[in-house]
Amino acid sequence: MQRILIVEDDPRMLELLTSILEAEGYAVDVTDNGQAGIERAMSNPLPDALILDLNMRDVLGWDVIRSIRGASVGSDVPILVLSAFGSAQDRDEAFDAGCTAYESKPVDRDRLIDRVKAVLKSRSR
């Protein structure tokens, strides 16, 4: 079973994402802050993918991405940014930091599942 780590500080969004992904058969691990997201992304068992909000209270998502990409363990985990920030500048900065894919909120269920499958497939290449 593939494991998805969700780093999201909005409890309602966290619950919604968890429900959608578990219904699709994924194992889901969650945290509501960026620092814990960094730690969990680099600890065993490593997640198969990470879904990340950019606007976190403690560590901004861009910094979470940079920390993970700069680590020796877990640096290749695909990162799907799911954020209310939808400007071209926000997207560009997320990709420059090292995200694999970017979706603006709100995202519908089918689109989310398609993006998760795509980022998981990108890791197997």
The amount of beta strand, in percent, is 15-25%
Continuous helix count: 5
How does CATH name the architecture? 3-Layer(aba) Sandwich
Give the tally of structural domains.
Answer: 1
Compressed to H and E, one letter per element, the order equals: EHEHEHEHEH
**What's the helical proportion of residues?**
40-55%
| CATH class wording | Alpha Beta
In the CATH hierarchy, what is the superfamily?
Response regulator
What is the terminal-to-terminal distance?
18 Å
Keywords: Phosphoprotein
Domain Response regulatory: 3-120
Protein name: Response regulator
Organism: Pacificispira spongiicola
Task: Kindly describe this structure.
With 125 residues, the chain is an alpha/beta fold. It has one domain: Rossmann fold, CATH 3.40.50.2300. The protein has 5 helices and 5 strands; from the N terminus they run βαβαβαβαβα. Strands 2-1-3-4-5 form a 5-stranded parallel sheet, with helices on both faces. β1 (3-7), α1 and β2 form a beta-alpha-beta unit. The chain is globular.
Topology:
Layout: E1 3-7, H1 11-23, E2 27-31, H2 34-41, E3 49-52, H3 61-69, E4 79-83, H4 88-97, E5 101-104, H5 109-123
Keywords for this entry:
Sig_transdc_resp-reg_receiver, CheY-like_superfamily, 5-stranded parallel sheet, Bact_response_regulator, phosphoprotein, Response regulator, Rossmann fold, 125 residues, alpha/beta
Question: What does this entry show, briefly?
Answer:
It comes from Pacificispira spongiicola. The protein is built from five helices and five strands, in the order E-H-E-H-E-H-E-H-E-H. With 125 residues, the chain is of the alpha/beta class.
